[in-house]
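Summary for the steering committee. One of the milestones for this cycle was to obtain a three-dimensional model of the protein with iron/sulfur cluster bound, which we needed before selecting residues for the alanine scan. The sequence and ligand used are listed below.
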Amino acid sequence: MTPPPPRGAQKRAALTIERLRDLYAAATELTHENPFQLLIATILSAQTTDRSVNLVTPELFRRYPTAHDLAAADPAEVEKLIKPTGFFRLKTMRILAASRALVDLFGGEVPTTMEDMVKIPGIGRKTANVILGAGFDSPGFAVDTHVIRLTNRLGLVATRDPVKIEYQVGAMVPKEEWTALSLRLILHGRRICDARRPRCEECVLNDFCPSSLVRPRRRLRKGRPIGEAPNSDIRLGNT
Ligand code: SF4
């Protein structure tokens, strides 16, 4: 059974939206010019940094600008181009298979619904939500490892199941905030709320985050930080 969201979760979610909005653009760091490029870049980003993906994609997309081009590509050529991203043989298989599916199922276009998106091999709900949100401006709450860690540390949820997190957070924040919140949580996880060493002293959420390692540096308007740690099972550490 899924535990319900911790007490005060909705208020903490609203404060998180408000504070992170001032800090980060609601954007993916993967360079792309259209949904097809974003889809391929997202597949390539597994187990590596966005920076290393951004180093290889300009040439990849120059050589193979459409799903039709990439579907017909010589795998050995693609492997050479994407080698710096690691796991290059597997990733080549994946981006070629995804491109073929785009051609066979959708005429070479990236579909615009979750239902169709997950028919593409290698595309799960997380990637689909990134593409829906950042590629089509259609609300999507993508749950990656950073979002799992932050939503638990912030006491928004008490589960590590990505689909349950997607639905629970989706129910507590307005739909138009889904994409931006997810993208900003990812950036905050990368820059401040590190898995091993969260920099709570620099964190703008430290006055209400139940997992903060520092004392609140400011109080909320009504006089007290929200709640105690809502889930004693959630502790800082690797996620
Ligand atoms: S206060 Fe610490 S644990 Fe909480 S979100 Fe910020 S960095 Fe993460």
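Key point for the committee: The chain is about 50% helix and 0% strand.
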